[in-house]
Amino acid sequence: MPAATPIISMRGISKRFGGVTALQEVDLDVCPGEVLAIVGDNGAGKSTLIKILTGVYQPTEGAIEMDGQALSMNSHSEAIELGIDAVYQTLALADHLDPAANMFLGSELTKSFLGFRYLDNGRMRVEAERVLLERLGVRLRSMDVPTESLSGGQRQAVAIARAVYHSDLRVLVMDEPTAALGPQETARTLKLIEVLREEGLAIVLISHSLDDVFAISDRIQVMRRGRRVDVVHTRQTSRQEVLGLIVGAAEAA
Amino acid sequence: MPVSAPKGLQERLDPYLAIIGPMVMILMILAFMGVAEPARYFRLSNLNIILLEAALYMPLAMAMTFVITQRGIDLSIGSVAALTGIIMAFAIKEFGFPAWIAVLLGIAIGGIFGLINGLVITKFRVPDLIGTLAMDLVYRGFALVLAKGLVLARFPDLITDIGRGRLPGFLPIPVIIGILAFLIGAFILRRSWFGRYSIAIGSNPEAAEMTGIAVDRYKVYAYVLMGAMAGLAGVMLTGKLNAIQATSAPYFNLHVIAAVVVGGTSLFGGRAYMLGSFAGVLLLSMMINALVTLRIEFFWQSVASGVVIILSVAFYTWLQKKDRDGAKGLLNAFTTPDNIKLMKLGGVLAAGTVVLLVIGSLFSTGSVPSG
Ligand SMILES: Nc1ncnc2c1ncn2[C@@H]1O[C@H](COP(=O)(O)OP(=O)(O)OP(=O)(O)O)[C@@H](O)[C@H]1O
Ligand SMILES: [Mg+2]
What we know:
The structure holds 2 protein chains of 2 kinds. Chain A is an alpha/beta fold.
């Protein structure tokens, strides 16, 4: 069971886009070493909620705390500095760059010659290979190919490696990381998530696949029409119950 | 990880693709000219002409490689070159500036024009195609206003050295400048943030933005580099001809874009081949020189550059398609319902044109000399 004190607490989060209310009074807690799954129908507000958590959007109302300290983030890069990073629904990879370049995109390693700094491609390659292998147990057949020639699961691994390379990463958010993957690659990605949980990261996982959710999560937060309808412990619930919460059958009946 | 399939032919060729394409075409030109006009084409003096012509386009193609890699385009470089050349000429002739100051001034002002292009595109959100085309009119207009149809000629030695000088027993100076530009460009592409981010921006702009790359700032950098290199080209052109006028450098845009895309840099972004651009410049210059040697009218050059762009873009796009079909696929492609409709449309247009030609000649009153 995860440590009892949450690393992240979101309280009373509301978000309006013009007239559209995407989120209303939503809470979220996640503890180190646990996987919190967020489920809900299309448009339930899952992506919006985690974009607020990762600094992409700012909440209209509500507060976020990290380790009990109030947070205010104005951009995604501020979230990254705080140790909160995300792997998105659509992968944020530059297909034409090789895996190492992608992994270090935006935070390249450099060396300098006569005070003149330039990219250290060799070291980035070695580091990328090491992180992929040591932290995620993934070995690519070549580090020289453009990322577009990798399989979906390998690309996912590169995207995850980019997030976990920050040694101070503490919260990893994944928005439908397995949506585009086949069964084998999905299994491999879930393995990666397990590895990261063992390392004590707090993981927020959005997924439409209840199979994945039940395979890996510790708790499940159900969203419906911009509201949090319930949070349940995965071991103490059933698919039936969660499905009912998602579509709102219990209330409608 | 599963055992991987052996590398496909395409994958193994990929790093060399950029150079193979232009090389094959260069060989074809050489073979053709070897049959058609060997004596005049393969003279040493002609080689010199080809190199001098190519050198002019080298800094431009280097910078354009970055612009195109970012999914951008710059259609104002000819006018920027002409205008900076004229400004440099005025600085020397009207205001008596030292030549070396005037040269640096030309490059700096070119950079400022590039900055303006970049700001028009990133701040005013004018699409690059229209933005730079409109700025092309502006720069050309200023060139005409300044030079008023005059040809400014006879410049200090420094300028003509830059344009057509030669290190004794070695390469012409402009060729050295051009090659240097490419070497620096290749280094920047692989070893600098600007190069890395240019590829990332062209490959996936949203992802680049999300990883915290200042996309707009790096786009502006590319246009500034492009403008500065256009300024340099203006200086080189002035030196090469020892003259400059407002209508100089009319075909720079098409020529440079053709050289870059024939070298494998993708107009769809993310794919940059500095070596390919270099080969592309050589190819274009050899092709145009071949046309000249064959005494084909000057205006055909424009036709040739345009055809080269279309063919190479189509070729590389076809090459990169993941599922290529064989000859049967090609035949099938002609018989899809959509394409049959297009062929019908083409048929109707052709038939209509023929009818108009027939009627026109029936009612013809003989030729009317104009003027
Ligand atoms: N940038 C935006 N501007 C306006 N409305 C938005 C914006 N982003 C999201 N919304 C709205 O907010 C609501 C929640 O969207 P969100 O993307 O969070 O849903 P989701 O739960 O992630 O859905 P899915 O499962 O389809 O990914 C939707 O009604 C959507 O239309
Ligand atoms: Mg979503």
